[in-house]
Amino acid sequence: MIHGEMIRSDWHDHDWQLIHTGAQSPNLHMALDEVLTEEVSAGRRAPTLRIWEWANPAVVIGRFQSLRNEVDADAARRHGIEVVRRISGGGAMFIEPGNTITYSICAPLSMVAGMSFQEAYAHMDAWVIQALAAMGIKAWYQPLNDITSASGKIAGAAQARRGKAVLHHVTMAYDIDAAKMLEVLRIGREKLSDKGTTSAQKRVDPLRSQTGLARAQVIAHLIDMFRRQYGLVDDALRPEELERAHALAISKFATADWVGVVP
Hints:
By secondary structure, this protein is α+β, with helices and mostly antiparallel strands.
């Protein structure tokens, strides 16, 4: 610390670990983000890149979003889509397990020391934009929290700062069923109807169509880029981390009080 200010650290100052496990429930993902961010904050876990695999479809709403303004509950039930709320701000994300790529980065707060939110998002997304370029997609950061291309939005990010750590997570559209998304997400419906979108068959498929790669191949490219840029060692969830996350998924994230905290 200099005069009470945190010294900014760089990607290369840290020993990064990768967690990429089998499919897990939406509520468990929400809980793992909280637990792992706390672990990094406390210095018990090295900075971590976690690739998510989804057990079932979901809508993930931001910490401060209104549940009823964002989600058509009847449509979500009809399609068997679980609605969960995360600990970070930002907008609603529509998740289909095979059609979405989600990851989170739990990093020391020093990584974004002295940065505005806009600068922090751009900084944390820079490696992904390079990875997309290597796959043939010219993408760029669009404030405040999007990654976009000439063919449209590719990803949305969200952040939360907890203790001495920052959580940065990103959901990328690999190949989304836009018609279903519009039934379930109210806000997306308004956005697309503004553009005169009428085709019920429309898909939001920037990663699939622009790379021609399978979802698993895109994930492999992302991991490879991170590893080559900053170093990355394969790791696993510790039993106590998983145990805490399972408990938190039930006691907090699965409760109507949390999901509906902003009605």
